[in-house]
Design brief:
Layout lengths: L1 H10 L5 E6 L2 H13 L18 E3 L9 H6 L7 E7 L1
Antiparallel strand pairs: 1-3, 2-3
Length: about 90
């Protein structure tokens, strides 16, 4: 998962969107931290002037989760979380 996320910053053009569906909390934490800060620890790096250096803008602040009907039709979907970010 870490290798995949590290490659996305180079592979996407500016304005390209990254969407990831995670099924486990550990995966979701990696995705959330990477989209928010550009690293896996969640530390936001800043330039000399104090501006954050993050490769992505968050499209969804909170993850999209399945509704009750989707969970009823497919019980495995209950733990799925969708996060979307756009490359700067």
């Amino acid at each position: 998962m870490k290798d995949f996320l590290n490659q996305t910053a180079d592979a996407l053009k500016p304005g390209g969107r990254l969407s990831v569906i995670s099924y486990h909390s550990l995966e979701d934490r990696l995705v959330k931290n990477y989209m928010k800060s550009g690293n896996f620890e969640g530390n936001i790096e800043k330039d000399f002037f104090g501006n954050p250096l993050c490769p992505f803008n968050l499209i969804t602040k909170k993850p999209q989760t399945p509704n009750a009907q989707e969970i009823e039709e497919n019980s495995r979907a209950r733990s799925a979380k969708l996060r979307v970010a756009e490359k700067k």
